[in-house]
Amino acid sequence: MNPYLRRVGKEDSLRLFPGIYVRDYYHLLKEIKYMTAKEFKQYLANHPKEIENWVKNVFTDIYLHKKITKAKTRVQYISALTTRINYLENKFEGTWPNKRDIPYLFAGIILLLAFVLVIAFYYAPKINLQEQTIARISSDSKETIGTILGYEQKLQKSEYEIEKLKQELNRKEETIILPIEDEIPAPKNRINREDIELTNNSLTIHKTDLYVAEIANTGSMLPLFDSHSEIIQIVPKSEKEISPGDIISFTNENKIYIHRVKEIGYDSAGWYAITKGDNVLGQDPLKIRFGSVKKILVGILY
């Protein structure tokens, strides 16, 4: 396995968030994809050059370090990581014989010829037989040397083709732009600054109909929140209060889920919302009707 793609120990891991330790390129790429553009921008502001230093100091990957140092956005980080991983997974290892093996090949052939000559002279009963043997060995030697020269020419051609392949891969690395899923809007603001009062180390939210709940251990909304995170919610009075980007709790088959709204629409049955967990690859299979919506998330307590 390519050493740049290895999984490091926990002592060398990158701590992205509380409880999340990144130990290889694959995990780093996965966690960045889970973040929204706003979350990733905030992470870079709070931890400048932390990812770049981890790549340089732990993996000594100068090439990737150079690429992500120039990157400014989440999309550019994802593109640099994906391109580097693809290149390392498909890196060309070379063929035999390579240039350093040629001297050993020549030495082996010379030893073989010497052995054949000794055997031929020792067992040849007549001078003419010896001469015929020598002539035959000389002919074989020329043919063998010609074969070696042919290998050397093929090796030179292979080195030229390898260099062309490297140049082509470098060009591809510079031009590959991966398709990135459209960013989801942030949740709609529902608690304003004037609703919050901080006095004597006490926090008061002047808002009615607030509810506090604890999250179950599903992992569907990582890294935004996980099990035992405390959340604050309100009850919507109509479907007009729900917008794409909001995080809602809803019921399905007597179970309560809390996922993000990707889009809203209307069909013959009326209003509906399409939802998806931030840490889930596909969207939820069912349309969520307003009657199934329980609450809207307005705050998270860590």
Short descriptors:
single chain; 302 residues; alpha+beta; six-stranded antiparallel beta sheet; 7 helices; 10 strands; 20% strand
What does this structure look like?
This protein has 302 residues and is of the alpha+beta class. It has three domains: 87 residues, no CATH class; 77 residues; 109 residues, Umud Fragment, subunit A (Ribbon), CATH 2.10.109. It has seven helices and ten strands. The strands form three sheets. It has a six-stranded antiparallel beta sheet with strand order 5-6-10-7-8-9, with no helix packed on it. A hairpin with a 2-residue loop joins strand 3 and strand 4. Helix 1 runs antiparallel to helix 5, helix 3 packs antiparallel against helix 4 and helix 6 runs antiparallel to helix 7. The longest helix is centred in the middle third of the chain and has 49 residues. The protein starts with 13 loop residues before the first strand and ends with a strand.
